[in-house]
């Protein structure tokens, strides 16, 4: 289903409770989730499946501690492409670059905001030089992440 259609889907308070709980614990059991939102486990499972089918819940993923994997540097890179560069080729490059954790096509002075996780500055430099040399990035602004703020 088209994710944009999820915005018009009827979502009630129970659905909102399910969504909020799954954001913090995607591995919770149907029983425990049902207890939190006031439903039987089977009804809870049905609700979650419906939210998945509607595209409200698109995926489940593990949150990895980069430091535990030897990734000591995270950075936000704003990138502007040459007007003649192919955005789809640049996006494909980002998708196959293991250091890229997130990327968004954005409005404003830059075309993309990219979150990267690298073991060191040399790797970040290699990425930026490669994007500039061969993939149409004509300008970038990089900010090092000093500390991530836990929101939940």
* Total DSSP helices: 5
CATH homology-level superfamily of the largest domain:
Lrp/AsnC effector binding domain/regulation of amino acid metabolism (RAM) domain
The CATH topology of the largest domain comes to Alpha-Beta Plaits
CATH architecture annotation of the largest domain: 2-Layer Sandwich
Tertiary shape: elongated
- The helix content is 25-40%
Mean pLDDT value: 90
Q: How far apart lie the N and C ends?
A: 28 Å
Main β-sheet description: 4 strands, antiparallel
Question: What is Rg?
Answer: 20 Å
Give unreliable regions as ranges.
none
Task: Identify the notable features of this structure and list them briefly.
single chain; 152 residues; alpha+beta; Arc Repressor Mutant, subunit A; 4 strands; 37% helix
Q: Please, could you describe this protein's structure?
A:
- It is a single chain.
- The chain is α+β, with helices and mostly antiparallel strands.
- It folds into 2 domains: 3-53, Arc Repressor Mutant, subunit A; 66-144, Alpha-Beta Plaits, CATH 3.30.70.920.
- Helices cover 37% and strands 20% of the residues.
- The chain contains 5 helices and 4 strands, in the order H-H-H-E-H-E-E-H-E.
- It has helices at 13-24, 30-37, 41-53, 87-95, 121-134, and strands at 73-81, 100-105, 112-118, 137-144.
- A hairpin with a 6-residue loop joins strand 2 (100-105) and strand 3 (112-118).
- Helix 1 crosses helix 2 (30-37) and helix 2 packs across helix 3 (41-53).
- The model has no long low-confidence stretch (mean pLDDT 90).
């Amino acid at each position: 289903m088209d994710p944009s259609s999820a915005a018009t889907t009827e979502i009630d308070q129970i659905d909102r409770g399910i969504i909020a709980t799954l954001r913090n614990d995607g591995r919770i059991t149907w029983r425990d989730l049902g207890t939190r939102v006031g439903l039987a486990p089977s009804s809870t499972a049905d609700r979650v499946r419906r939210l998945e089918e509607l595209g409200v819940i698109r995926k489940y993923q593990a949150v990895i501690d980069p430091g535990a994997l030897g990734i000591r540097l995270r950075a936000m890179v704003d990138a502007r492409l040459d007007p003649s560069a192919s955005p789809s080729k640049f996006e494909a490059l980002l998708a196959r670059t293991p250091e890229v954790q997130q990327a968004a096509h954005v409005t404003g002075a830059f075309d993309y905001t990219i979150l990267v996780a690298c073991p060191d500055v040399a790797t970040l430099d290699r990425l930026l030089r490669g994007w500039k040399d061969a993939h149409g990035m004509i300008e970038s602004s990089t900010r090092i992440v000093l500390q991530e703020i836990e929101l939940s």
